[in-house]
Amino acid sequence: MPFFGFKGGIHPDYNKSSTSGKPTETLPVRVGDKFYLPLSQHIGAPAKPVAAKNQQVKTGELVAEAGGFISAAIHSPVNGKIVSISHVVHPMAGRMEGIVIEADETNDNYEPVSDEGSFQQIIQRAGITGMGGATFPTHVKLSPPKEVDTLLINGAECEPYLTCDHRIMLEEPLKVIKGAVLIKEKLNIKNLIIGIEKNKPDAIQLFKRYGREYGFELVPLYVKYPQGGEKQLIKSCLNRVVPEGKLPVEVGVIVHNVGTAAAVYEAFYERKPLFERIVTVTGAVVTPKNLRVRMGTPILSLIEACGGFLGVPKKIVMGGPMMGMAVTSVETPVMKGTSGIVVYREEDMPDLTKYPCIRCGRCVDACPMLLVPSIMDRFVKREMYEELEQHHVLNCIECGCCSYVCPSRRTLVGGFKTSKRHIMQIIKERGAKNA
Amino acid sequence: MTAAVLTMAVTGFIAGLGLMYASKKFHVEKDGRIAAVNDMLPAANCGGCGYPGCGALAEAIVAGKAPVNACPVCSREMVQQIAEYLGITVESGVKKVARVRCGGGCENAVEKYNYYGPRDCHSIVLLSGGNKLCTFGCVGEGSCVKACGFDAMHMGKNGIPVVNAEKCCACGLCVRACPRNLITLIPEDKPIVVNCMSKDKGPEVKKACSVGCIGCKMCEKKCPVGAIDVDSFLAKIDPSVCNVCGECAAVCPTKAIGNYTK
User: Which of A95, A380, A414 sits opposite B129 (nearest CB)?
Assistant: First the structure.
C-alpha cells in the first residue's frame, strides 16, 4: 500500500522512550477506594443514572444508560456501593453530575453484557466510545448512513509521550486485529487497513506477521504530528480528502483507534463492558508507567502507583500534551477518553510570554488543514467572527501545530477554539431567524 | 462659439427631460415620518433593540412592527416625543440597569488555576469550567466590558465588572456577551439584587466563595412583602413585588444580597 502523506504538521519531541518499553501493569483495586464516574464521558447527550444511592453494584453492572442515540452507557468499574450521585470533578466542565462508587470487594469477574440484538446494539450496551481521546460513541460510527469501502484502524499514536496504543498493539495484537476484522465483516467492508507510525518498529514487525492470515493491509506511516488525526490519516493512507464539514463516511471510510478495536473485540466475544482502559502516566513522576486502570480512578492514585511526583508539579495534562486538557484537581477521574497523564514541573514549562505576530508564516506551513492561522488570529483579536467563518475556522481540528511553531508564542489555537463556539452560536441564530 | 453653446443647451435639455421622466416613472413612495423618527432616536446604532441600527428600528416603529419603546437606550422623554409625533400612547416604562450578579472577586472566590490563554471570558469557561472553583460565577476577563458601547462598565479592583448606573442604557449587549448569563437587566428603582447565581448546595458554595448564596432562606423569612423565593439553593427577588426595605441585605449571613441604593 503506498503512503501519500499530508501537508503541514510538526515534529515535536516525542519522549515516548520512558514508557514505550514497559509492559502494562494493572492498578489493583483496594477495598474502600472511591470511583468517580461523570455522566458525560463522551461526545453527545449525558448518560442517565439508572442506579440509586446506597445500591449495591457489581463490576460491569449498568449504572447509567445512554441518554440518546449519540450517547454511551456507563458501567460500574468495581463491586461496591453507590455512595452518592452528586457533583464530581470533570476536566472540561469543571464539575458535573456523576456517580461515586466505593469498592467493598476486589475481584476480577464482571457482569457480562447480554448478547441480544444486533452487533451495534451490543456495542452500544457495552458503552464503548472512541478510545483515542475524542470519545465519539462507537455504535454511531458503526451505523454509517452511506456505503463504506474501507475500514482504517488508527495505530499512529502521534501525540508525544503517549504509549498506551503502542502497548495494546504489542500485548494484545490479536484483540486489535480480530476486533477490526469483526467490524469489517459485520459491516461488509471490503478493505481493512491498519496504519502504524514508523517510530513503533516492533509493532509494525508484529502486525506484518498477521497480515496475510487476517487479510489486512499494513501501512507504515511517516512520523509526523498529527498523523493520527482522522482526516490526515485518510489523506495519508488513501489519498482521499474529506469534504469540508463532512464526516469520513462521505469518502467511504470509517476510522477506529486500535484501543477501540480491542474494546469492540472484548465486548462482542468476551461480553465485557467498557470499565477499564490503559493509561500512560509519564513526565515528572518517579517511574513512568503504562497502567491498566478502572474508569473513575482519581489520577492521584495513578501518580502514587508511579512512585509519586518528581519535584514540584506545575501542570498536569490529561491526554497528550498537544491536545490534552490541563486538569485542575488531582481528584479528576480517569474517563473513557483518558489516554495519558503527563506531569510537568516548573522547569519543563516553556516560556509563555506573548509577542506580536511577526508574520513569518510558520503557522501557515504547519497547519494540516491548510488554514491561515496568522490572518485568522487578527480576526480573533478583533472578534470578527463572520470573516473567521469565511476563513474556514470551523475546519480547525484544534491540533495545536500553529501554536507550537509560533516564535511569538501566540495563543492561536486557543483563540480559534473559542471562536468556533461563537460562530456555532451565530450560525444557530441565523438558522432560527431564517426558519 | 454659438454652436457649442447651442449643442450644450440642447444636450442639457434632453438629459433633463430624461431625468424628469425617470424620477416620475421610478418614484418610490417613502414615509416621511421614518426620517423624522430616525432623527429622534439616539443614533447610537448599538443594536440593543435587535434591529441592525437606528434607521431600521425607525422603519419598524413607523410600520408598527416594533413598539415605540423598543429602543432600550431612549429616555422616557424621547419615547414620549416619538409617541406624540406618531400619535400613539405609550406606557411609561421604568429605566432598567444591568446588574452583574456575582460578587466572587479575587478576594472572595477560590481560584483553581493560573490562566495563560486568550484573554476572553468564553475561552476561560472552556477550560475546566472557569478559573474559579465556582462554576457559576464571573471569570473576570471582561467580555462584557469590551461589549459595552456606552462606557458604562469597568473592571473593578477585585476582578468583577462594575456598572455605572447613570451611563447604563440597558441595551443588553453585556447580557449577551456573558458566557455565564450573569448579567440581568433590573429596574433602576429596585436596587436590591442577589449577587450570586450559584445553584449549588450551601456547603459547596461555602468552599468556593465567601460571598455566595447558600440558600439558607433567612431573607425569604425576613421579607415583609414575600418578594423572595429560594429555589434550588438560590434566592430570587421578584422586582415587581420588592418594596426596597433592605431587610434581606441586612440579614444575609454571607452578604450575597447587594443594596445599590444611592
Answer: A95
A373 vs B: CB within 8 A: no
Strands A150-155 and A253-257: parallel
Neighbours of A360 (CB within 10 A): 13
Specify whether the CB–CB gap between B185 and B97 falls below 8 A.
yes
Asked if residues A122 and A267 have their Cβ atoms less than 8 Å apart, the reply is yes
- List residues bridging with A49 in a β-sheet: A64
Residue A63, classed as helix, strand or coil, is: strand
Give strand pairing partners of A34: A102
Three-state DSSP class for A237? Answer: helix
SS3 content of chain B, % helix, strand, coil (to 5): 35, 15, 55
Instruction: Return all residues near B126 (Cβ < 8 A) that are at least 6 apart.
Output: A92, A417, A418, A421
Interface of B with A in 183-202 (CB under 8 A): 200
Q: Does A91 touch chain B (CB under 8 A)?
A: yes
* Partner-chain contact B128 A328, CB within 8 Å: yes
Q: Does A394 touch chain B (CB under 8 A)?
A: no
- From first to last of its 262 residues, chain B has per-residue pLDDT tens of 899 999 999 999 999 999 999 999 888 887 788 888 888 888 888 887 888 888 888 888 888 888 887 887 887 788 888 888 888 777 656 788 899 999 888 888 888 888 888 888 988 888 888 888 888 999 988 899 988 888 899 998 888 999 998 888 888 889 988 999 999 998 888 889 999 999 888 888 998 899 999 999 999 998 999 899 998 899 999 988 898 888 899 999 999 998 888 7
Give counts: helices (H), strands (E), chain B: 10, 8
Q: Where is B229: in which H helix or E strand?
A: strand B228-231
Smallest Cβ–Cβ distance between B118 and the set A95, A418, A421 belongs to A418
Nearest Cα of chain B lies from the Cα of A92 at a distance, in angstroms, of 4
What ipTM was estimated for this complex? 0.81
Number of neighbouring beta carbons within 10 Å of residue B25: 7
Say whether B118 and A380 touch across the interface (CB within 8 A).
Answer: yes
**B157 class by beta-carbon count within 10 Å (0-12 exposed, 13-18 middle, 19+ buried):** exposed
CB atoms under 10 Å from CB of A151, counted, come to: 22
Count of Cβ atoms closer than 10 Å to residue A146 Cβ = 9
The domains of chain A are located at 362-434
A345 in contact with B at a CB cutoff of 8 Å?
no
Q: Which residues of B touch A411 (CB under 8 A)?
A: 116-118
Contacts of A299 (CB under 8 A, 6+ apart): A316, A318, A327, A330, A331, A332, A333, A334, A341
d(CA B58, CA A297): 61
- Which three three-digit cell numbers place residue A138? 462507537
Handedness of CA A287, A288, A292, A295 (dihedral sign): positive
Calpha distance B66→B64 (Å, rounded): 6
**Chain B residues closer than 8 Å to A327 by CB:** 128
| Coil vs helix vs strand at A293 | strand
Q: Write out the three cell numbers for A180.
A: 477490526
Q: Smallest CA–CA separation between A392 and chain B, in Å?
A: 19
Q: Which residues on chain B are in Cβ contact (under 8 Å) with A328?
A: 112-113, 128
Question: Which residues numbered 59-78 in A keep a CB inside 8 Å of some CB on B?
Answer: none
Q: Report which DSSP code applies to A274.
A: S
- Residues of chain A contacting residue B204, judged by C-beta atoms under 8 Å apart: 87
